[in-house]
Amino acid sequence: MDAATKLYQSRANVLGYTSTLGTALPFLVLLLVGIGFPLFGGGYWGVIATRACVYWVLVSGLNLVVGFAGQIAIGWVALLTLGAYTTSVFAAGNATPAFPPYLALTIAAAVGAISGLVIGLPALRLRTFYFAITTLGFATIVTQVALAWQSVTGGGVGVPGPIFPEPFSSQWGFYYFCFGLAAICTWMTANVAASRFGRALTAIRDAEVAAEANGISKPAILVPIFLFSGAVASVAGGLFASLQSYITPDAFTLDLSILFFIAILIGGRGSILGPLLGTILLTVLPELAAPLVAWSTFLYAALLLVIVLAIPGGIAEILDFKNRRPLASGRAIIPRPDLIKELFNQPRNAGSLTLERLAMSFGGVKAIDDLDLEILPGQVHGLIGPNGSGKTTILNVISGYYAQQRGTVRLNGTELAALGRYQRAQMRIARTFQTPRIVGSASVLENVMIGGTIDGQGTFVESLLSLPRHRRDEHILRGTAMLSLTVVGLDRLAPVRADRLQHSELRFIEIARALMLRPAFLLLDEPAAGLTVEEIERLGALLLAIAQAGIGVLVVEHHPDLIFDICHHVTVLNLGKLLAAGTPAQIRSHREVVNAYLGG
Amino acid sequence: MPTLAVESLLQTSALSAGYGKIRVLHGVDLAVGAGEIVALLGPNGAGKTTLLRALSGLLPWSGSVRFAGLDLTGAGPRAVVKAGLAHVIEGHRVFTQLAVLDNLLLAAYDLPRRERAERVDEVLELFPELAAKRHERAASLSGGQQQILAVAQGLVRRPQLLMLDEPSAGLSPVLVDRVLVVVRRLREAGTAVLLVEQLIEKALAVADRVYALARGSIVLEARTGEADLPLRLEHAYLATAKDSPRSE
Q1: Domain of B44?
Q2: Do the strands A353-362 and A406-411 form a parallel or antiparallel pair, or are they unpaired?
């Protein structure tokens, strides 16, 4: 590692460090309040506090599914039910010899993990409300089984909850047990949120197509999340059963499931602190409304409505002071093409990317018709043509979004499988999009770090527990992302929420994110659209420098000046067919190109 | 204030707007005459899009805006459209799940049925590539064709003033020229156009007058015929990008 890379890493660490301190503070306050709670809370409030901790153990895991990955899992009470019965039944010895409660709780965690996966799996195929309905279905099934399987669950009569031995048998003892688990869950989910896994989840939520282009496989990332979320939800179930001391199927209402979901909703998406405060709020709110007896449910609902209306962005948004500071207006994007070499310090030997006799049609309309194309490393290849001539379609075939009907795409001689979206990143083929696809609620730096997801070494468990390999991954990713941002000229905006930036800046963020892959080939879809003349010039210089570092660059563009200034080779398409190919000088004077495309 | 427009269709004075506490526009005075094409130029981040959004009632603003004899204070997007001001937003945002034809019908949803059909036919005549795909879902159009559809949606209502936000983005050079031909034809039919554009030369070729916006204020107003305009525009741009001398 040379001196310059080190410099960027240390700069990135300064940014990371100050923000860590700021975000950790509220958690420390909550930790102290939680530890000291028995000093000022009476017996009744002790039960409420314990319940809040139990709920949070479940919600913390569910938060990764709902708040981060954006999967609408409404029926998560199914896992609470399952965990409660598994722990109680094993501890009571209804079907087996009686197990110690800790072992019963561990078994519940394992059962919960597998069930979490089963309940979550439909998310890989079903979207939004369809997935939500399947989770509700599971919630109903679990309750019905608990009712019907009388010999084990006691049916409608129920089963006693487990009693944890000394020192956790007293009220405050049990409180500290639950509080400890809640604290551990907070720590673990915060670790995940700040890892490449957490960023990948938000990418799937807000920009699924871009996530896949960056090598993020939805199944591979969602499976560990469902396992974890199911396990902690079941543990919460075991604790819930112990807190209730006796459980029947009536205890697990859909209201409870909706409470968990709303806690995340009013907490804010993509936050840990928000849903944590949301859970505390929703646990306490019914107690505040309780004195009104008959009207308590009404008051609870009214308060909830007020909260949702008053803070549409969730609690997390209110607490986001950093992003309320105005940004400098009249910011200029000043790329540093000279720093590209530091990003590509290892020589690449990529060969070329070729399309052979490619054909593809949509419902009888030929989008690409028998096209040959060769993109060489170290060159900028321009792809131009009238609107609808098939330029973006070609990009989509190369990056695996469309399967061609005929022909092959080869990288260095090997044929690329059709529809291998997230595998293209592994082959170091990176791309940008016609409309920038970014995670608006994440910082600019985090958005760029998404591009390096596949280069992390640590596993999900290592990130969960913040083990050394996870921390090293983060350190390296942050350093590379900072360098990438400096290359495109946006380093000063690293800590800013990405949705506060203007359109031209988003285009450069996408390039920085693509550079994180250290690609062999970079495909750009209209990178200059919406840029000023000056910005286009800088973009041109940047793309040339990228090509000079040995990368094959394919640019789909409409600005003739940019194409003719920087391209080594230009291909012109018309109606999916090759109209002309050659050097910029040849194309500029090609009569048919002038007629069909450039205009007189 | 004195302005070069003969008779103002749109007149803003001391218009300020922004997002929450963050002010973007600081007292903009701008006028568009009836049947006039006015180009609004400026670097990215200058506030061009914010200005259009404020005018069409999508953002709260302070100051005064008069349009076609009406005071637009407190007018929401619906009232603004009804008054005859149409806004084509940037980034080819059309209804991708609807057919091309339905997109156009939707853009004129409150016109009488017969008139609506006529207007849609007129617009389809202007853009044969849309006519050929009128029954296909907008999602099947390429990005550039979606942009054309967005422009066409703005035309359907035959507004008194059409505001176009970077209509050229994503269009091939020939298609950009065609859109500009349509813009010119609109003027002949009496429609005024406020054009935000990054292709400065093409914008100047079609416009009657030009404003340059920088850091939320108008820094230049001129007729496009004036000889020293390119130089003055360059100064207007440069004055705002003092911190960018490193470009090559």
Answers
A1: 8-238
A2: antiparallel
